[in-house]
Design brief:
Elements (H helix, E strand, L loop, with lengths): L6 E5 L12 H13 L4 E3 L12 H15 L14 H13 L4 E4 L9 H11 L3 E6 L1 H4 L5 H10 L3 E6 L4 H11 L4 E4 L6 H7 L3 E4 L7 H12 L2 H20 L3 H11 L16 H13 L6
Parallel strand pairs: 1-2, 1-7, 3-4, 4-5, 5-6
Helix pairs in contact: 1-2, 3-4, 6-7, 9-10, 11-12
Length: 296
């Protein structure tokens, strides 16, 4: 299962209709787009998919559709996070039942409490793989490399870590301790991907893959070849977009805004998030033009 986790890990958005429902056909279309564009792994129902704003039944619907559309072409590791262990188990078992290759789970984000037990209970309830979503922005503190090592030693199906710590010293230590048996993946996308690749990470998550797949795909190809000159050239070219995402977030607003500008109707993000303003769209349009994603 560890071998599956490499390359471009595509974070799918959740499209909504004008009346706020999950747009099933648009979602299916986007999954096909991601696969056809060169994604190596698919992660629906994560932060980019607004999992926090979906009901449990909506999350199950999204998971099932993603597995159906992937059709075994690439591995699917849907988000199955919840602040309650039993509900996270319910989502994880559902993902397994409909054919997912694994699940991605963040720590319990209301009370951290016994986080090791939370993960071990979920791992013990399923036979498919588990990616630990290490995201201190959401749960207030990062899981340390030592805690991750403890969990990996106790759960054979813990196969990956989505590292969103933005702490390269911690990332380096995590790769040193776990990298021989667990895939440590860049969770922050193209902004830190070059540095993760240099540290030995086998892949990176990407949200811009929803509208600009050529950049993460080419960056990964160059990294696999050891062509870090090209990696950094791509990084430099993407910097205005990455800076815009950072300053006009949460990032989902920008991803959906860019897709809309490019003619992909995916609806607005759900409250409490808001769509991009007119001024933000104008600024983003110029960035997309400079990336040659739009004609000037």
């Amino acid at each position: 299962m560890v071998e599956q986790l490499k390359g471009v890990v595509a974070l799918s958005i959740a499209p909504f209709t004008s009346n706020g429902k999950v747009d099933e056909e648009a979602f299916r279309e986007n999954i096909r787009f991601l696969i056809d564009s060169g994604a190596d792994v698919l992660v629906p129902n994560g932060s980019c998919g607004e999992c926090y704003a979906l009901t449990i039944e909506e999350q199950k619907k999204v998971i099932k559709i993603a597995v159906e559309e992937a059709g075994g072409k690439i591995p699917v590791y849907p988000g199955a996070s919840h602040s309650g262990t039993n509900i996270a188990i319910e989502l994880s078992k559902y993902a397994e039942d409909v054919g997912a290759d694994g699940v991605q789970v963040m720590p319990p984000y209301y009370y951290m409490a016994d986080v090791v037990s939370h993960y071990l209970k979920i791992c013990g309830a399923i036979e498919i793989g588990m990616i630990v979503y290490n995201n201190p922005e959401v749960v207030a503190k990062a899981l340390t490399p030592q805690v991750l090592l403890e969990m990996a030693n106790k759960a054979e199906n813990l196969v990956g870590v989505k590292d969103c710590t933005e702490n390269l010293n911690m990332t380096n230590e995590t790769i040193r301790l776990l990298g021989d048996k667990v895939a440590i993946l860049c969770g922050t996308g193209e902004s830190l991907a070059p540095f993760f690749y240099l540290l030995g990470s086998p892949g990176t998550y990407s949200s811009i893959v929803n509208f600009a797949p050529e950049f993460p795909v080419e960056m990964n190809r160059a990294a696999v070849k050891g062509d870090y000159k090209t990696v950094m050239e791509i990084h430099k070219r993407l910097t205005p977009l990455l800076n815009f995402i950072s300053t006009h977030g949460p990032f989902i607003r920008v991803i959906k805004g860019a897709m809309e500008i490019l003619g992909r109707q995916v609806g607005s993000p759900r409250a409490p998030l808001t769509p991009l303003t007119k001024q933000e769209k104008e600024e983003l349009t110029k960035i997309l033009e400079n990336l040659e994603l739009l004609e000037k």
